[in-house]
Specification:
The structure holds two protein chains of two kinds.
Chain A: H1 3-14, H2 25-60, H3 62-69, H4 74-100, H5 103-133, E1 147-148, E2 151-155, H6 158-194, H7 204-228
Antiparallel strand pairs in A: 1-2
Chain B: H1 2-30, H2 37-57, H3 66-90
Helix pairs in contact in B: 1-2
The chains are: A mainly alpha, B mainly alpha.
Chain lengths: 234, 96
């Protein structure tokens, strides 16, 4: 048996969380992060296609998109942005607490993250309900009666506004689905942390779950100005 | 170790405050008329916020693995190709 193999066997005996096909704990951590980042890059391209479709139609029907955008409440959108940014802080605190073996901080941060996640979905559901009441949901009952911002004599096209709302519901809906999956992951992390399975030696699930949550936050950082703030000054 | 960990906590809080400030700035900038630059300003602020989250919250800045940084940069690069080439097509169709 070579020296390196002897070393890996003895360190495996030290830390039962180190899987036998990794040489060191650092290599195991780096591999998990790299795998997660490759998954996140596919997610970027997934959302990227929708952002691309949005940009093309926004360029083509700018006035109608501005009219449709201004039926949204930017205050609710801004509040949700702040909620997600705060949740990103609690997530990074949870990752830190798991590495430092601070159990109370870890559990508290995870609970706060879940509360903020539900707050986001709650505000989003209020917004969706309003869209259904105003018949701003694309489909046979769609109604749209707004002027183009900055042009009080020009009626916005309902057909083009419908394209905006279709993109609005697909993009925010897909984002909300990611939030729901994220909440599921964090409930599981809370149970795992409660059982004491996240330690300074092995906290990969916390680190990886955190990467996912931050990614979902970044998507919203772009969705907020693009969907809520078109031509707001007019 | 504890000295290092408390300094990283300070970093997290500072980044969190900058992100909140950036959100307020985005709303403020959208309410003043910058002509065609409104969208550019909004996207620039959003990209700075996203970069801060990636570097500090997602720990790419301190990552020892160079392959990870390559994945992050190539993701941004391919997203740029998707958006730039599509916009170069659709954005110039009215020119002819």
């Amino acid at each position: 048996m070579s020296d390196s193999q002897t070393a890996s066997v003895s360190s495996a005996a030290h830390n039962p969380a180190l899987l036998h096909h990794f040489a060191t704990e650092e290599q195991q951590r780096d591999s998990a992060s790299l795998g997660m980042w490759i998954f996140l890059s596919t997610e970027v391209m997934f959302f990227g296609g929708l952002f691309c479709a949005y940009l093309i139609y926004r360029l083509k029907y700018f006035g109608d998109f501005a009219a449709a955008s201004q039926t949204l409440d930017w205050k609710l959108g801004a509040t949700n942005t702040a909620v997600l940014i705060c949740s990103s802080l609690t997530v990074v605190l949870a990752v830190w607490a798991a590495q430092q073996a601070k159990r109370a901080v870890l559990l508290g941060s995870l609970v706060l993250t879940l509360i903020l996640g539900f707050a986001f979905l709650g505000i989003k559901s209020i917004e969706y309900a309003e869209k259904f009441e105003k018949h701003h949901v694309p489909g046979p009952t769609f109604q749209f009666d707004q002027k183009v911002p900055g042009h009080p004599d020009q009626q916005a096209s309902p057909g083009h506004a419908q394209i905006y709302f279709a993109l609005y519901f697909v993009m925010t809906g897909l984002h909300a689905l990611h939030m729901i999956i994220g909440i599921g992951i964090f409930v599981w992390l809370l149970v795992t942390a409660w059982k004491g399975r996240l330690t300074p030696e092995y906290n990969t699930p916390m680190e990886i779950g955190g990467l996912y949550w931050h990614f979902v936050d970044i998507v919203w950082i772009y969705l907020f100005p693009l969907l809520y703030l078109i031509d707001l000054h007019k | 170790m504890s000295e290092h960990s408390s300094s990283s906590l300070t970093t997290y809080v500072v980044i969190w405050l900058i992100l909140l400030l950036g959100t307020a700035l985005t709303v403020f900038a959208a309410r003043i008329d910058l002509g065609p630059f409104n969208a550019a300003v909004a996207l620039t602020i959003a990209s700075v916020k996203a970069l801060l989250v990636v570097l500090f919250f997602m720990h790419v800045k301190g990552a020892s693995e160079k392959l990870l940084k390559l994945v992050v940069i190539s993701t941004i690069f391919f997203l740029f190709i998707l958006l730039a080439l599509s916009m170069a097509d659709y954005g110039t169709r009215l020119w002819s």
